[in-house]
Amino acid sequence: MAELPESRINERNITSEMRESFLDYAMSVIVSRALPDVRDGLKPVHRRILYGLHEQGMTPDKSYKKSARIVGDVMGKYHPHGDSSIYEAMVRMAQDFSYRYPLIDGQGNFGSMDGDGAAAMRYTEARMSKITLEMLRDINKDTIDFIDNYDGNEREPAVLPSRFPNLLVNGASGIAVGMATNIPPHNLTEVINGVLSLSYNPDITIAELMEDVQGPDFPTAGIILGKSGIRRAFETGRGSIQMRSRAEIEERGGGRQRIVVTEVPYQVNKARMIEKIAELARDKKIEGITDLRDETSLRTGVRVVIDIRKDANASVVLNNLYKQTPLQTSFGVNMIALVNGRPKLISLKEALEEYLEHQKVVVRRRTEYNLKKALDRAHILEGLRIALDHIDEIIRVIRESETDKVAMASLQEQFKLSERQAQAILDMRLRRLTGLERDKIESEYNELIAYIEELKEILADEEKLLQIVRNELIDIRERYGDERRSEIQLGGLDDIEDEDLIPEEQIVITLSHNNYIKRLPVSTYRAQHRGGRGVQGMNTLEEDFVSQLVTLSTHDNVLFFTNKGRVYKLKGYEVPELSRQSKGIPVVNAIELDNDESISTMIAVKDLESEDDYLVFATLKGRVKRSALSNFSHINKNGKIAISFKNDDELIAVRLTDGEQDILIGTSHASLIRFNETTLRPLGRTAAGVKGITLREDDKVVGLDVTNAESDEEILVVTENGYGKRTPVDDYRLSNRGGKGIKTATITERNGNIVCITSVTGEEDLMVVTNSGVIIRIDVEDISQNGRAAQGVRLIKLGENQIVSTVAKVNEEDEIKEVDESTEAIASDVDNDNASQTDLQGSQNSEAIVEDDAPGNAIHTEVEDEENTSNNDGRQEVRQDFMDRVNEDIDNADHGTDEDNEEE
Question: Can you supply one Gene Ontology CC term for this chain's record (predicted)?
C-alpha cells in the first residue's frame, strides 16, 4: 500500500482527539436525533416525516399511500439513515396506544398493545391525521425558518409552526448520550387551558397551572395515584408518577368472584403482563387465582379476566397483583428538551412559556407576511386605479409604442408608475375596462387598505397579537379537545398527598361488619321522613352489613380505635372513594390490624395538636377514661396503644370533648348515667381508666356521648327493631360516676334492646343502618319527643331478619347542598297508622326508676304497669322526685369505694 504524503498527516494527542470527537458525536445525537424541540415537540425524524407528507400532499382528504413510498421519499430527501428507523418512527405516530393524539392515520397492521410488530412497509398505507394539519398550518407563510438538507439540494423546516402544544400533548421519549428524555402525554384541552391561563397571568404559579393541567393523560387511560409525583415533575421537570390498571371485582355466582382489568398502564405490554400473572400464580407466589384469560376484542376493548378461588379474598389478590405485576407501575418523568438548540431540563411553566413565545413568533411572522402581500397587492391596485382614471391616454400610449419595453417606459414616465404597476397595466385584459370590473377593483382596494391597517395594528400592539394566539388555540381546543382518559385518584392508600391539592368536601366513611371500608360524598344520601324504606347503602355479601358510619371532611383525620384498645390514623382522603353499592376494600389494606383485632369505633378529628380537647373512652364493662387529644398527635402506621384493659374488657366507643362536657353512658338494657367530665382526671394515653357505670347481670355498654349542660340538647335512643325517641337532656339528672344510672327506655319484645344512645340538637339528620346494608336518612325533628321510659316511635320499616346495626348523625350545616339525584331511591309513604299507634303506646308507658341496689341498701322500686301509672300521675311524679334523691345518695356511696380509684 502506498504511503500517504507527509503533508496529509497531522499528529494529535489521542486524548484530545477522543474528547473532541466524542463531544461532536454526542452533540450530534442530542441535537439531531434523540431530543425533541420544545417548540413543536418533535425530533428531526418525526419532523421530516410530517413535512414529507405535506410536500407529497398526503392530507386527510386524500387517499392513503404506501408506507414504503413515504419512507423512501423522506430518506432520499431529508433523513439519510436506515429505512427501518424511519418506518418505526412513523408507525409509533400512528399507534393510538402510544400517542394521545396520533399524527399519522395508518391503514393496515400498525402493531398492538401486546407487543406485536407492524406489518412490513410494503403492506401498510398512511396519510396525515386531521390534527397534523394544525402542526403544519401556515408553514408556507414564512412563519418558520428553513434550512438546507443534508446535501444542500432541498430545504427543510428547522421547526414546525405547531399550532397546538405537541410536546406536552403527545409527550416524547428518547435516549441521547449522557442524558435521556421521558415526557408523558397530556390532555389537549387541559394543556391549551394552561397556555391560555399563562397568557393572561405571566406570574402564574405551578399550583395555579395545575388547576388547568391536572396531570398526564395517557392514551391507554388507567389510574394515576396521587398528585405529589405530578407536582414534583411539573415544578422541577423530574418526578415519578404511579400508574395503576383499572380493575373491578365482579360477582360470578356461587359466591365466586373475578377480577376484570379494562385499562392497563401506559407502555405496559399486555401480553407480558398476563404472562407475569400466570407465572406468579403457577409458582404459588400469588394464591387464589384459578383461571386467567384475555378477552380483549375490538368490540369490548381491553378485557383481562382473572377468576378467583371461592375461599380467596379478591381484594387481597388484586392488591398482590398491584405489588408484584405490571398492573401497577411508575412513569419516570424527565422533561429534557432542546431550548434554543441546547438541551435543558424544563418545568411545566417553562414548557408552556416556550410554546407561547413560539406561537407569538409564528403569528407575528404570518402577520408580517400577510402585510407584505397586502401592500404588494395594494400597490398593484393603485396602478390599476390610475389606469382606469386615464384609460384613453393609457390606450393611446400603448398604441403608439413600438415595443413592450417602450410602452412600459412611457407609462412609468407619464403616469409616475412603478415597473410592477406598469407591467400589471400591460397585462390587464380589455374586460377589466367595464364599469363592473372598475367597481370591483375599487372595492378590493378599499378592503385591502382596511386590512393593511388592521395588520399594522396587530404588529404594533402585543396584546392584540396575543389575543389572536388565544383565539386560534381556543378554536383548536373546540375542534379536537376531548375528555380526560386517565383518572387521578386523590388519596391512594400508599400515597400521602399535599392537602392543598385535594378539594375539601364532606364525606361519609362506612365500615362493614366484615371489615370493608370506603368513603362516599355525604350528599349521596338524602333525607327521608321517618318510616321510609331507605336507600341501599352498599351491596353487601351474605352475612355482611354496615356496622359503623362517620361524617367528616376529606382533610380531617380519622382515628380508628380497635376492640383491643389500639388506635390508628388515616386522612379522610386516604380512604378510597367507591360507588354507593360497592362493598369497599378490606380495612386491613388500609390499616395493619392483627388477626383478632377489629375496629370498635371511628371518630373524626380536625386538629390533633389541640391542647384544649380531650378524648373520652368507654369500655364494654363500664370503665371510662379521659385523655388529652394531643397524646394522639403522632400515630405511626402500626398504630399505638389508646387504653389498657383489665379482666378481658373491650373498647366500645370514644368521643371528642372540650373538657367541659357532661358524659352520657348507656347500656343495652336501657340504663343511662350522666356525669360531668371534670370528675374524670385526665390520664395518660395507656392508662386503664376508672369505673363509669355499674352494670347489672348480662348488661353491657352500647353508647357513649357528651352533651353541654347549658344546651337544649336531647337524648336520642334507637332500638334494634327500628324504634326511637327524643327525650330532653334535663330529664336525666347529673350524678356521680360509677352509679347504675336511670331508665332511658322501656324494653319490650316489640322494640328490642338499645343499639344507640346519643345527644342531638334537632338540627341534624340521622343515618339509620340495618344489618342488610339499607340506610335511611331521617330529619331528627321528625322523631317524636317522649318521656324517659317511653318505647319510642318507628323510624324505619324492617324486613324479615332485619335489625338496626348502627346509627350516626349528619350535621346539616356541613353538607353539600347538591344531591346526586341518580343515587336517590323513592321514599315510601309514611305509615301514619303505625306511627300514631307507636306514639300512643310510648305516651302510655310510665316513667320508672332503675334503682341502685348496692350492698347494704334494701330500697327497691318496681316498674309500675300502664294501668296504675295512667291513674296515678300525681303520685308517680312525687315518687320520681323521691327516688331521684335516694339514687343520688346511693351513687355517692358507690363512688367512695376503693374499686373506683383511678388507675394510671
Answer: DNA topoisomerase type II (double strand cut, ATP-hydrolyzing) complex
